[in-house]
Amino acid sequence: MDRDSLNALPCGCLILARNGQVLFANRVLSEMLAVDPGTVALEGKHFSEILTRGSAIFYETHFLPSLLLRGSLEEIAFDLLCGDRTRQPVLINAVVRDTGILLAVFGAKQRHLYEAELLRARRESELVAEIVRKSSDAIIRFSAEGLIETWNDGAQQIFGHQIDDCKGRGFACLFAPDALEDVSAAISNLRHGDDSVLDTKGLRASGERVEVSISLTPHMEAPGTLVAFSAIIRDITARKRAELALIQSEKLASVGRLASSIAHEINNPLEAVTNLLYILSSSVTDSRLKELVDMAQEELARVSHITTHTLRFHKQSSGRAAVDVRVAIESTLGLYRARLANAGVETIVDCESGLTLTCYEGELRQILVNLVSNAFDAMRSGGRLRVRAHHAFAASPDNRRVHILIGDTGTGMSPDVLSRLFEPFFSTKGIGGTGLGLWITKDLVHRNHGKIRMRSSMSPARSGTAVLLSFKNNGAAE
C-alpha cells in the first residue's frame, strides 16, 4: 500500500523497523501528536521516543517480545507523548510483516472517559449495594407476583430467616395471619403506580410477632406494567412501646385527677359514717355484734385512708410499724368469709406463730384484700383458698424475709395474660374491672421492701394460681 493510501486511512498508522525505528507515520498520527504533517519529524525516531515513560518501558519489556513471538496483538493500550508534552491515550493493533511492524493506532480518549465514568458508576452502585446490605431496616425486592427476590442483613435481623430459606417464597411468610389482608390491599395498589405505607405486624421465624412499618414502592415499565416492587420494613416495636407508655402515663394522670376529685367529694360522708359507727359501738353490748362494728370501723378507716391518698397518687405520711401477720390475714379473710362460704370455697390458713412484719399496715391489708378478691373471683364455683405465712431461711439476719403465699384452685391464667398482669388498665374482668388492682398491689409491695411473683396453670387437673409475697423484714419501725 502506497503512502497516499496510508495517509487516507481514518486511523493513525505507523510502520516500524524490527528495532523500533519509525519508517513511516501517516497524517492522522501526526495530528494526534500535534506534529506538522508536512514534515518528516517522526520518521527516523525510535518508537519509544513518542511514548510516555511508562508506555516506553511496557513497549520494550512486554509488548515487543510478545508481538515478535505471536505475530500480532490487538487493542493494547499506550500513552503517546504529544509535541506539547500532553498525553494522548490510544489503542494499538500490531502485526509483524516482512517489511517491518505495522501499527494501527486509534484514539482512546473518549473510551477512557467512558471507562472512567463506568468505573465511577460501578463504585457508586457497589456503595449503594453495601449500604442496602448493611442497613438495619429490611430492604426486600419482590417479583410482581409477590415472591421474594433479594434480601439484606436487616431483613435477616428483623425476621430471623436466611435468604436461602425465603428466596422464591411469597410475602405472606413475613406477616402475621391477621395482617395479610391489609398488606395484600397495599400491594394491589402498587399496580396503579401508587406507593403505600402502613404499620402492621410481622412474623419472625420463631413465630414471635413484631411491630413493623412498611414502605412499598412499585417498579413499573411502559405501558404502566408492574414488573416488581420493593419494601423497606422497619422494626417499630420500641416506638410502639414508647407510644403505649405515653398513653398509659396520660391515663394515669387522668385517673389521678379523677381520684382527687372523688376523694374530695366523699370525705365528708365518710366522716359522718365514721361518727355514726362510733356512736353505734358504744351502744352495742353483744360481743359478736361489737366485733363486727369494730371491723367495720377498721375497714372504713382504711377506705378513708385510700381516698385521702387518692389511690396511691400521693405519698403516704403514716409510718411503718410491726404488724402481726396472722391478724392481718384473719381480718382480711373475715371480710370475705361469708362470700367464700356461699361459693363453696374452703379456706385454709397456715401462719407461723408470732410472725410480725415491719410495714405500712394499711398497705399490707390492701395487698391482701386485692389478692384474696382475685382468688375469690377465680373460684365462683367452689375450690380451695390457702394462705400460708412464715419466715424464710436466711444466711444472715440482714437478709431475713417474710413469705406470704396465697394459692387458689381457680380457673388459672394463660401465659399471655400472666405476662401482662401488672400492666395498668389491663383487666380480664371485662367492663367490671379497672385494671388497676394488681398494678397498685405491685407498687405497694415494692414500697414495703417486697417482691411479688405469680404462677398459674389452666390444666384441668391442676388449675389455679399461686402468689408469693416476699418482704424484707430487717427494717425498724418508723
Give structural attributes:
5-stranded antiparallel beta sheet, single chain, 478 residues, 17 strands
Please render the helix and strand layout as text.
Layout: H1 3-7, E1 12-16, E2 22-25, H2 27-32, H3 53-70, E3 72-81, E4 87-97, E5 100-107, H4 109-134, E6 138-143, E7 148-151, H5 153-159, H6 163-166, H7 180-190, E8 196-203, E9 209-221, E10 225-235, H8 237-283, H9 287-308, E11 321-324, H10 325-342, E12 345-351, E13 356-359, H11 361-377, E14 383-392, E15 401-408, H12 415-419, H13 437-447, E16 450-457, E17 464-472
Parallel strand pairs: 12-14
Antiparallel strand pairs: 1-2, 1-5, 3-4, 4-5, 6-7, 6-10, 8-9, 9-10, 11-13, 14-15, 15-17, 16-17
Helix pairs in contact: 8-9, 10-11, 11-13
How would you describe this protein?
The radius of gyration is 45 Å and the shape is rod-shaped. The chain has helices at residues 3-7, 27-32, 53-70, 109-134, 153-159, 163-166, 180-190, 237-283, 287-308, 325-342, 361-377, 415-419, 437-447, and strands at 12-16, 22-25, 72-81, 87-97, 100-107, 138-143, 148-151, 196-203, 209-221, 225-235, 321-324, 345-351, 356-359, 383-392, 401-408, 450-457, 464-472. The strands form 4 sheets. A 5-stranded antiparallel sheet has the order 2-1-5-4-3. The protein has a 5-stranded antiparallel sheet with strand order 7-6-10-9-8, with helices on both faces. It is 41% helix and 27% strand. With 478 residues, the protein is an alpha+beta fold. The chain starts with a helix and ends in a 6-residue tail after the last strand. Strand 8 (196-203) and strand 9 (209-221) form a beta hairpin. Mean pLDDT is 83; it is low at 310-317.
